[in-house]
Amino acid sequence: MLKTETPSTRHAELDLYPTDKLVAALVDDQFQAVEAVRLASPQITAAITAALPRIAAGGRLLYVGAGTSGRLGVLDSVELNPTFSWPPERALALLAGGNGAMFAAVEGAEDDVAQGAADVLALQPQINDVVLLLAASGATPYVLGALRAARGAGALTVGIVNNVDAPVALQAECGIVLDTGTEVISGSTRLKAGTAQKITLNTISSALMVGLHKTYGNLMVDLKPTNAKLILRAVKLTMHATGAGEAQARSVLEQCQFHVKVAIVALLKKMTTDQAQALLAGAGGSVRSALAA
């Protein structure tokens, strides 16, 4: 039996726990998710190292999964645009059962090897694409079909699983094993197995965005300010990075459609926003390089 499916010996009488003990059991078990990701750090590092030049060369991030794992992939993909202004067409997610499976289970969808392959091939994967394949069991047929199709097309495959010796990790070019063990509620991989996958996806996508100069220091300077909260955040980030007052920061941001990178360079280099934009373009989008020019 897979570790993720094996009943935990620690909480055999879980249904008898008082609420405070039940909460403690559920929360404390999550710490093992963090530890599993920490132990997999070398594998995560290797995947990011392999992925970054491909993404920098114009590749896409393609997420594939079923059930909880697939929904976590969807979540990571859609958050990259508002957070880093990452083009939506370069972060695509495939979920077994289609978009409707985001909100309701589609029975049997995860067992369809051929559909996994067909869904990936419909995206016309290229050599610079990076395919993140998520499966707690590590043997989900839909994900294995997608993996084999992606490899056949020459894309980089990254298998993220929660069981050792799992086919998805072994057959991918980069395998990441998050050995989270048994769940408090037996087999419910929406618990710490899912938490470990979420941490890993956050780490991979965030590290890639940092490598693509989407940050300045630890400041999120390439966000897309699509609402009042994010507009205020853009102003605050610009003020923090430059020491400018709120009125000045907002004025410069308005001149460049609230592009924080451009405003920072314009303020610190004492130039127009058009000049700052050109300088950033010549520096590959790196605020540090633009400021040093």
Gap from first CA to last CA: 59 Å
Which bin fits the share of residues in helices? 40-55%
The description of the largest β-sheet is: 5 strands, parallel
Instruction: Please report which band the strand proportion falls in: under 5%, 5-15%, 15-25%, 25-35%, 35-45% or over 45%.
Output: 5-15%
The number of helical elements comes to 12
Shape: globular
Gyration radius (Cα, Å) is 22 Å
Query: What oligomeric state do the depicted chains represent?
Result: single chain
Order of helices and strands: HHEHEHEHEHEHHHHHH
Q: Average the pLDDT over all residues and give the rounded result.
A: 97
Structural class: alpha/beta
What is the tally of beta strands? 5
| Unreliably modeled segments | none
Strand order of the largest sheet: 2-1-3-4-5
Name its key features:
single chain, alpha/beta, five-stranded parallel sheet, globular
Could you give a quick summary of the protein structure above?
The protein has 293 residues and is of the alpha/beta class.
What does it look like?
There is one protein chain. The radius of gyration is 22 Å and the shape is globular. Helix content is 52%, strand content 9%. It is built from twelve helices and five strands. β4, α6 and β5 (174-177) form a beta-alpha-beta unit. It has a five-stranded parallel sheet, sandwiched between helices. It starts with 18 loop residues before the first helix and ends with a helix. By secondary structure, the chain is of the alpha/beta class. The chain has helices at residues 19-39, 41-56, 67-84, 113-122, 141-152, 167-171, 192-211, 228-242, 246-255, 260-269, 273-282, 287-292, and strands at residues 61-65, 91-95, 130-135, 156-161, 174-177. The longest helix has 21 residues, at 19-39.
